[in-house]
From TrEMBL:
PANTHER family: BCS1 AAA-TYPE ATPASE. It comes from Acer saccharum. SUPFAM superfamilies: P-loop containing nucleoside triphosphate hydrolases. GO terms for biological process: response to stress. Gene3D superfamilies: 6.10.280.40, P-loop containing nucleotide triphosphate hydrolases. Residues 317-331, 460-477 have a biased composition (Basic and acidic residues). The chain crosses the membrane at residues 6-24. This is AAA+ ATPase domain-containing protein. It holds the Pfam family AAA_assoc. It comes from the Eukaryota. PROSITE patterns: AAA (PS00674). GO terms for molecular function: ATP binding; ATP hydrolysis activity.
């Protein structure tokens, strides 16, 4: 059949329908008209038993991008990439700069929820813009959801809620994560792009696995925390000598969970009120870190100022302008107290919705007040220690891409005799030539370990000598005292 033969009768049918509709509107009595409309609607529902819901991209007068729309967009991204024939691609500005695909205009994808079939389509309205002098068009997109009317309640009650939740979760996973630092009572942020992961972290595999499982269990335990009536938070205390990987582990935690990091500098916080303000402003899915807690807060209630200690005799004090900036940053009358911090951990913190981890680090766990680190506040205590042979092997795999080497035996022996931090081991394993030579790096480590062993031996000998001398001096003093006493007795 030729196109002309098809369209000619169709055109006249449409024209007749429009004619009857106009006549109906003009001459049909109003009371009867509402009845006819009601029955015609019922007829349409019978023939077309589907419900459609539209989600517009922009809502309200201020043309804010609708949250529901962007959640649906994220939710549909994985379905679109497998089902849609025409796709749009965009780079998401997350830490991986990954490519995200979504369906193109007028495409349709299907979905299934508890046995219900649903269809999503992306539509577009084009309007002429009135604002510009130049001819311009405005495109407004919308998602349309279609499903059978018999599932109305299930879709409205459960399906849409799950779509929005999943869509928001995808958005959080794809977002660019941030590292916040406080300057006084204000947070400022930069993009968080630390490459550390648990794979690159050198520590005993069982211990590493335990921490990973603990973190993942926590991140999925929203319902559990709600059921037992506890705030969804968990405290970690990382302790160990400098250079054993405390900061590296925090970065690995943030990367594992996809959380933001808040690096809270307590010495720059004026008082408990400021502390409270800062903490209320933290978002969910975040890790709040207080490094070197023993230096940041005097556990008797008086604060010390670690930065001040470090630069006491430095150049910073000589420049009056820098001194002023420093004083502004570290006000002298700071009064953050241990009890203020504990209140935050126990009380106020609980009022903020969403999951949060709080991590304290210290080089001296023995200096910390037991109240601060009891379970419930710091739930998990993790010791990061000197490099073991197992941890070294993880570093060697990472840095040198080797799992065994003839020099490993000697290194294992030396690790049994001398302590070295993973930071120092890592430094020896850094490439010394271009391209990196494995043997040169391993020999550098052996040399470093032997040197450290020698130094430790000299130090031990010196200490023993000093102790001996001290002992000699003590016994000499005692002898003198005894002879003075004896002389006195004789007189
Ligand atoms: N366990 C580890 N695994 C892998 N790399 C490590 C480890 N420990 C330390 N490093 C390396 O050493 C460097 C210093 O480590 P890091 O800053 O994490 O130590 P730290 O314990 O936080 O030290 P500090 O107490 O002085 O802050 C890191 O950049 C990292 O490359």
């Amino acid at each position: 059949m030729a196109a002309k033969d098809f369209f000619t009768p169709l055109g006249s049918i449409i024209a007749s329908l429009m004619f009857f509709w106009a006549m109906f509107q003009q001459y049909f009595p109003y009371e009867l008209r509402s009845h006819v409309e009601k029955y015609s609607k019922r007829l349409v529902t019978l023939i077309y038993p589907y419900i459609q819901i539209t989600f517009h991209e922009f809502t309200g007068e201020r043309f804010m991008r609708s949250e529901a729309y962007s959640a649906i967009e994220n939710y549909l991204s994985s379905k679109s990439s497998t089902q849609a024939k025409r796709l749009k691609a965009d780079i998401v500005r997350n830490s991986n700069q990954s490519l995200v695909l979504s369906m193109d205009d007028h495409e349709e994808v299907s979905d299934e929820f508890e046995g219900i079939k649903l269809w999503w389509s992306l539509g577009k309205n084009i309007t002429k813009s009135q604002v510009s002098f130049y001819p311009a068009t405005d495109e407004k997109r919308y998602y349309k959801l279609t499903f059978h009317k018999r599932y109305r309640e299930k879709v409205l009650d459960s399906y849409l809620a799950s779509v929005l939740k999943e869509g928001k979760a995808i958005k959080v996973r794809n977002r660019m994560r941030k590292l916040y630092t406080n300057n006084g009572s204000m947070w400022s942020h930069v993009v968080f792009e630390h490459p550390a992961t648990f794979q690159t972290l050198a520590m005993e595999p069982e211990k590493k696995q335990e921490i990973i499982e603990d973190l993942i269990t926590f991140s999925k335990a929203e319902d559990f925390y709600a059921r037992i009536g506890r705030a969804w938070k968990r405290g970690y205390l990382l302790y160990g000598p400098p250079g054993t990987g405390k900061s590296t582990m925090i970065a690995a935690m943030a990367n594992l969970l996809g959380y933001d990091l808040y690096d809270l500098e307590l010495t720059a916080v004026r008082d408990n009120t400021e502390l409270r303000k800062l903490l209320i402003e933290t978002s969910s899915k975040s890790i709040i870190v207080i490094e070197d807690i023993d230096c940041s807060l005097d556990l008797t209630g008086q604060r010390t100022n670690k930065k001040k200690e470090k630069v006491e005799d430095g150049d910073e004090n000589k420049d009056p302008r820098q001194k002023l900036v420093k004083e502004e940053r570290e006000p002298k009358n700071s009064q953050v107290t241990l009890s203020g911090l504990l209140n935050f951990i126990d009380g106020l913190w609980s009022a903020c919705g969403g999951e949060r981890l709080i991590v304290f680090t210290t080089n001296h766990i023995e200096k910390l007040d037991p109240a601060l680190i009891r379970k419930g506040r710091m739930d998990k205590h993790i010791e990061l220690s000197y490099c073991s042979f197992v941890a070294f092997k993880a570093l060697a795999k990472n840095y040198l891409h080797i799992e065994s080497h003839e020099l490993f035996e000697r290194i294992d022996e030396l690790f049994g005799e001398i302590k070295m931090t993973p930071a120092d081991v890592a430094e020896h394993l850094m490439p010394k030539t271009v391209p990196g030579d494995v043997e040169v790096s391993l020999r550098s480590l052996i040399q470093g370990l032997e040197l450290a062993k020698e130094e430790a031996k000299v130090k031990a000998e010196k200490e023993a000598q000093e102790q001996e001398q001290e002992q000699e001096v003590k016994s000499e003093i005692k002898m003198q005292q005894n002879s003075v006493k004896e002389n006195g007795d004789v007189k």
